[in-house]
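Hi C.,

You asked whether I'd gotten around to modeling the 379-residue construct. I have! Everything is below, sequence then structure, no commentary in between.
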Amino acid sequence: MKKILVAVALLFCGSIGYTQAQETDLTQKWKKGILVEEFLYDKAPFPSCHSATIAETPTGLVASFFGGTKERHPDVGIWVCRQENNKWTAPVEVANGNQEDGSRLPTWNPVLYQVPNGGDLLLFYKIGPSPSTWQGWMKSSKDGGKTWSAAKMLPEGYVGPVKNKPELINGELFCASSTEGDGWKVHFEVTPDFGKTWYKIGPLDKGSEDLNAIQPSILKHGNGKLQIIARSKHRALVESWSTDNGRTWSPLKKTGLPNNNSGTDAVTMANGKHVLVYNHVLPPGDLAKGPRTPLNVAVSEDGKKWKAALVLENSPISQYSYPAVIQTSDGLLHFIYTWRRQRIKHVVVDPSKMKTKKIKNGEWPGGNPVAGEVQDQES
């Protein structure tokens, strides 16, 4: 187990470490609007899990994640839980990396997408020894995730949405994607017919700082204007903008928000405001990688100026990571994320009840509520 000795001053805001009482006060301050906090399951036939995704279907919420002995192990499969009568069903394995020769490869990063107007529920995932060698696959469900079609491989070299949900833009499904084999690069994989045919846009220009980024999320600003926010190796979240519905994109550029080289997600709400869920962590010193705690939520009206809204997790034990967020038809926000690589957690938020405060100079207002020794469980 890797241990990183981190003072709150070093990680977040330059002050001396918090007392327990101060930490409790900060925790409660950043919980406004939270309605439900729950785990998808208490027990499962696998010890480790990661990379959750969630979708609203006509029959209820569906969640998916990968689980097995540990990440990269051949027994890692894609699991699904469904919400029935406000309770989650037990995890069921719906996809794996079984090969024709009897061997098995690990699976990775499922992404769910509900086709509008009563269409299928799509499940994208990857099979391969590593992120630099994986191949995209997909399945579909006509009954809200109860049963699934046979697996279908995407065209050679396509991986589908690499981590975060696709967005429907002018009738085409834009899958924000990335590759890691020859340096980190962001691109888009677009399907006009929900997985039957595909084409690519990109990779995006890395900009003057030669930024390495992966795992983008798409935000919609209206009138053809789009924004992506992505993970990077450069101690900051990075962004790119399009003014022509995703056909062309500006060079990658750092935002004013920190990044610990871990995944994020974002969504544009029905009222036009944007929600970002991420670890607001500036790694210590000049390191590119930092602890995956706390897990934060920020809100913006323009995708540029962000306000602090929530702290979903703040324990010194790391690995609150790889979040996903959606807004359901009732207006509520649903967050789902890895909890210490042991379980998947689901949090429901009423966005109208969130209390926000400006993030200035990349610092969480009042300091981020994590103190002491941070235990980073796994990379």
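If it helps when you're writing up: The chain has two helices and 28 strands.

Thanks,
B.
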